[in-house]
Amino acid sequence: MENLDLMVLRALHAWRVAGRRALLATVVRTWGSSPRPVGSILALCEDGALVGSVSGGCIEDDLIARYSSAHAAQAPVMSGIPGGPPAFLKYGVSADEAHRFGLPCGGTLELLLEYDPDPQRLAELLALLGSGRLVQRSVRLADGAVTLSAAPAAADLALDAQQLSNTFGPEYRMLLIGAGQLTEYLATMALFNGFAVTVCDPREEYRRSWSVPGARLVSGMPDDVVQSFQPDRRSCVVALTHDPKLDDLALLEALASDAFYVGGIGSRRNNEARRARMIGHFGQTSEGLARLRGPIGIYIASKTPPEIAVSVMAEILAVKNGVRLPRDVQVAQAKNERELAHNDPGAQVCATR
């Protein structure tokens, strides 16, 4: 499954190229709790087809009803969504309305609705995103005119009296080293979280049994594949073979890149040995290995491949979303504290503080 924003933009472009009326809704403000963050987008076609989300569902139902009735001959002006220049629409102003639309207590959100976006500008945006560019899309509120410009870094949505600016990026990418069972679960989870997944394994016996549709499978040596993959700030690299000949060089190449997450599977002892090898044989330093994660994942006492995949995916998403994980959910720290409590029951209280 591709990045949700790209899915929305592709659907909107297809509808407009086909001559269909459609709108693009963007969450521009929230007050209190909100089901979806500022910057979330939704595309809605005149026939009621919808891609994306701005809430838990009730607001989407209302938008469909309003927009569909706007194009119905019997009620062209009753919907409150007539078309024209971009317009703001607010939900959850009162407690009763918040309850009606399924918003959390005190929740309010405001949308900007763009009617019939120019298909040519949508095509240009999709082409830029397809080439791996980070793009700022600015909408002039007076008439809906759109300008596209290169964005040096991801940025929060910006709104003033003249325009709205929202940053769109290419898909997040994940490169997995090794095509074993754990990789199948992790690749599946990454795909439905919007990552483009590439799996590298030079071992034919592992490639023969690979069975995750949607993930690209390559057979080169992992360090060469990392180089050709060219990890950037929207990429993560995870080594899962347990074989130092395959994992170590791939991880070293990844650490030299801008990948936001680089990690290798293995126990605390195996990860300590990996770091010692990299320092002793490859001239690395402790500072140079500071970004290398391992043991990977968050501590949930996982034992089976699917549980381990949940743990690893949770950590990757936390890092991607800028969440600083507390020490007590890190695998090594949690296991150390559990062992301390097991060996010295009197230390259990101290270990959990």
From TrEMBL:
<feature type="domain" description="XdhC Rossmann">
    <location>
        <begin position="174"/>
        <end position="316"/>
    </location>
</feature>
<dbReference type="InterPro" id="IPR052698">
    <property type="entry name" value="MoCofactor_Util/Proc"/>
</dbReference>
<protein>
    <submittedName>
        <fullName>XdhC family protein</fullName>
    </submittedName>
</protein>
<dbReference type="Pfam" id="PF02625">
    <property type="entry name" value="XdhC_CoxI"/>
</dbReference>
<dbReference type="Pfam" id="PF13478">
    <property type="entry name" value="XdhC_C"/>
</dbReference>
<dbReference type="InterPro" id="IPR003777">
    <property type="entry name" value="XdhC_CoxI"/>
</dbReference>
<dbReference type="InterPro" id="IPR027051">
    <property type="entry name" value="XdhC_Rossmann_dom"/>
</dbReference>
<feature type="domain" description="XdhC- CoxI">
    <location>
        <begin position="15"/>
        <end position="76"/>
    </location>
</feature>
